[in-house]
## 1
Amino acid sequence: MKAFTQVDGLVCPLDRANVDTDAIIPKQFLKSIKRSGFGPNLFDEWRYLDHGEPGMDNSQRPLNPDFVLNQPRYKGAQVLLARDNFGCGSSREHAPWALEDYGFRAVIAPSFADIFFNNCYKNGVLPIVLPEAAVDQLFAETAAADGYTLHIDLAAQTVTTPSGAVFGFDITGHRKHCMLNGLDEIGLTLQHADEIKAFEAKHKQAQPWLFG
Amino acid sequence: MAAQTLYDKLWQSHVVSQSDDGTCLIYIDRHLVHEVTSPQAFEGLRLANRTPWRVDSVVATADHNTPTDHWELGIQDPISRQQVETLDSNIKHFGAKAYFPFKDLRQGIVHVVGPENGATLPGMTVVCGDSHTSTHGAFAALAHGIGTSEVEHVLATQTLTAKKSKAMLIKVEGELGQGVTGKDVALAIIGEIGTAGGTGYAVEFGGSAIRSLSMEGRMTLCNMVIEAGARAGMVAVDDKTVEYLKDRPFSPKAEQWDAAVAYWKTLVSDEGATFDKVVELDASKIEPQVTWGTSPEQVTTVGGKVPNPAQLEDPVKRASLERALSYMGLQADTPIEQIQIDKVFIGSCTNSRIEDLRAAAAVAKGRQKAANVKLAMVVPGSGLVKQQAEAEGLDKIFVAAGFEWREPGCSMCLAMNADRLEPGERCASTSNRNFEGRQGQGGRTHLVSPEMAAAAAIAGHFVDVRTFA
Ligand code: SF4
C-alpha cells in the first residue's frame, strides 16, 4: 500500500448523498480477478453515455459531458468531495480500488458507510469525515474557484483550505500508523501469532464444536 | 458482573488482544467465501508466500456469477467462468472445510448455504466478503461483511482488527398483521431510521414480534440491517434457534450438542443491559411495504402514494427526490397500487428460503401471471431449497401460474449473470437493493416481500396482498 503523509490535491465535488458502491464501480467489472485497472470504470454508468462492459476500449467510449469528473476543470483531481453516507451498499473493495486507480487519494464527506470506510484505509485512500457545515463550505468554495485545492496532512490530522482555514479530523491510532507508513496489516498482526494461538487453544477447549 | 448485551458477550468472547486506542484483534470462527471477493485475497496469500491459518473455518460456494438456467451448457460468459474456476482452483490448492461448487446439490447463495448446513452457529464470529453477511446474526452470531483485504487478513491470521461498535436495540412489540412479513418489518425500520440510521452500531432486534418470526424471517431482517447502515444485526437465541440447528450437517452432535445448547442459551442480553440507542416500533401498525425510489429508505405502504417533491423545503432533499422519481419513471402522487410492472424476481439472500417460496406459491396457486408481466422468475436460494420446494410441488404451482422455475444463485439480485432488467423495465423484487442499475442498467426496482411480489405478478401491478382475492 502507498503511504499517505501529505497531499495537495485538486478537489472534485460530487454533490449527491447516498452514493452507493454499485455507482462507484458497477458489478460487471467485479468479474475481474485482479486488483488493479478499475480506474477507467470508476462511476461508469454516470461517466459514459453507453453501457460499459469489461474489456472495452474506454478511450473510445462517449463521455457524459454533464458528469462532474468529465469537466476539464476537475481533470487530475485527487480529493473527492461528497455528501452523506458515501460508499453505502456492498462490501466490494473494488470501490476503493477504482478510486485509487483513478488517482483519488482522499474522500471528504459528512459520513461514510462503514465497510467502505474501512476498506479505504487498506488501500491508501484516506476517508475524512468533516461536519456538514464544513462540507457545505468546501462545496461552495470549490464551485466558486477554478483549480481549488486542499492541503491534507495526515500526521497533523488536518485539512487546510487555500485561504488558510483549518479543519481537524479523527482517525484511530492504528489506522494512522498503517497509513502513514504504508504498512501491510497482515505482517503486523502476525507479530501477535502467539497470542492468537493461545486464544485459539482456550477457545477450542470451551467450544470444541467450532473446530474441525 | 454488570449486565451485558448479547453484543457485549459475542464481542468479549472473541477479543485476542486490545491496543491503547481501543483497536482489538478479534478471533474469527467462520469464514464464508465466494468467487467475487476472494480471488485477489488468495492471490495476495500466494504472493506473500503465506498459507491459511485454519482451513477448517472456511466454507465456500459459487453464487454471484452462476447461471440459473441451462446448467448443461456450463457458464457461458467467459469472464464469469474464469472467476468461478479461479475459486475452484484456489479451494483445491488451499483447502476448506467444505466447498459447494457450481452444480453441486448444496451450492447456492452463501448466506442461504451457511445456516442450512449448520455452518453458522450461535456464539460464532462469522465473516464473508459480502455485505449481507449480517444475515447470519439471526443465529446470535456476530456476523458482518468485510472487504477483500480483510478476507486475506482472515485467511492469513484468523483474526480481524476492529473497534467495538455502539449497541442499538430495535424493539418491535405486538402482533404482526396477516400478510405482514419479516421483509416488511425490515423495510419499515429502514423507512423509520434511514439508510444511515444504523451507521456505527451493532443492532439487536428484540421484542415479541421478533420472537414470533421464524428463523427465515429473522434472517430476512438481519440481512437488511446493512441497508440501514449497520454492519451487524442479531437476534438472541431461543427455542426456534436451537430447533432450526438440530441435525444440520455441521451442527454439533451427541454430547457436544448438549454442551453447545447449554452455552447458546446464555446468548441473550441480560436483564437491565443498556444500549446506546433504543428504537421502538409497534408491530400492529406495520403494513406491507413497497419501495418507490432508488434507496431502500424511499419506501411506503402498499396503500400509500409516490411522494411529491414540491412538498419538500430542503433543496438538497428535493433534488434527490426528483432525481429518484425521474430515474424510476414515476409521477408524484401516483398511488402505489397503480404502478404497473414488467418483471418479477423472487429470490436473493433476503427472500429465497423455503418459507419465502411457500408464501409466494400460496399466492400464485391456481392463478395466472398477468399478460403485461414479461417474466416472473423464481430463483431458490440453494440446491437444497430447490429440492425441498420440488418435493412439496411448489415448482409445479409456479410453472402452472406462468412463472419460471430456475436453478439457485444470486441471479437478478445484482445481475452479474445473464438475468437482468433491460433499461426502463420495472420489477417487483424480493431482493434488498433498489439502487440505480442494481438489477441491470436503467432497470427500476421496487422491493417487496415474496407474497407481495407474487401478487404483483398476478395482478400486473402492485396490490395489497391482504385483500387480494
Ligand atoms: S443474493 Fe444479492 S445481496 Fe445476496 S449475496 Fe447474492 S448478490 Fe449479494
## 2
Amino acid sequence: MSVRVIIPSLLYKYTANSEAVEVDGATVQECIDALRNRYPELERWLYRGGKVATYVHIGINNRKASVDDRVSDGDEVKVMLATGGG
Amino acid sequence: MEYSQSGASICKEPIVLSDNELYRYGRQIIYPGFGEKGQEKLQSSNVLVVGVGGLGCAVSIYLAYAGVGHITIVDDDAVELSNLNRQILHWEQDIGKNKTASAAVKLRKINSSIKITPVCRHITERNVDDIIKGADAVIDGLDNFETRFVLNRACVRNRAPFIYGGVNGLLGQVTTIVPGETPCLACIYPTLPEAEGTIPVFGVTPALVASLQVMEAIKLIAGFGETLEGRMLYFNGETMEFAYEDLAKDPKCSVCSAIRLRSGGNRR
C-alpha cells in the first residue's frame, strides 16, 4: 500500500527538505514507522517512549484519523503537532 | 476599535504614570521601543486569561508583574493535589478552592494597583462572547482543543487577538492569532485534534510557554517588536530545540474566511 505522508514544515530539515514522502504501510502507524525508519531523526519530535506521541495529530485525505486507522493505496496522510495541554 | 500596527487595540483612556509607577516599571520602561508610552498602554489594557492551570497561572503572574491594568481570569475548576507540580499560583492550602479565587488572592498581593477579575465559569458557546467582551488580548490557558475552538470562534467574531499556547510533556507551542490578519486556529487545525488523555507535563514546560505568550501580549499591546503572527513556534524540551512553521490561511475556513473578506486583511 503506497501512501503519501505530508510532513510539517518544521521537520523538513530531517527529511532532506522533502515536503511529502511516499511510504508503504497498511495502517497510519506503519506509515509513520516507515517514515521514521527512513528519516530516524524524526523520532525526536514524533515519538515519545518508542511510540508515536499523543500530540501527533493525523489526517487521512483531510479527515481526522488515528494511528490505528487503515490506509488505502494512494491515500494522503497529514501529520501535525497539536499539543492540547495547559 | 482602533488597532496598532500589530493588530492590538490601542487604549483609549490616557494614563499618566505616577513617580511610583515610573520607578516600579523602570527596568522595562527603559527598553528601546517600549518606553513610558508602552507602559501606559499596558496599564490601560484588559487582558483575558482563559484557564488558570499550568499556563494560566504563569501567564497571569507575569501580566501582573508587568503592570497590565486589568486581568480577567476564567476557570471553573477547583484546585487538586495533582495540580501542584505546575500550577504555581495554587498552594497546598488552596486544595478544594476555586482556581480563580485562589489565583486572585495572590495576584492582588503581587500587584495591588491593578484590577483582577475572577470569573468562575466554564467557557461555552452561550457565554463566551460576554466573557471576552472588552478584552484587548485573550491568552489561552486551556487544557483541551474543544474549548479552544469555541474560544477561537469567539475571538474571530469579536476581532480579539488570541495567543494560543499548548503543552504536552516537554513540548510546547505558541502562535498569535489576529482575526482578519492571520490564520485562525481552525485554519491551522481543520479537524479537531484528538484529546490526548491524561497529558504528561513538567511545570517548566507551561512556565516557558506562558512566558512566551506574555511576551507576545506585551508586544502586541504596546506595538513594538515582531510577534508570532502567522507563525507557530515549537519548543522541544527533550532535545532542547526550537522550530518554526509558517502558517497559511485556509481560504475556505468556516470560522475566519468571511471576516477576512469583510476586512480585506491580507497580511499573510
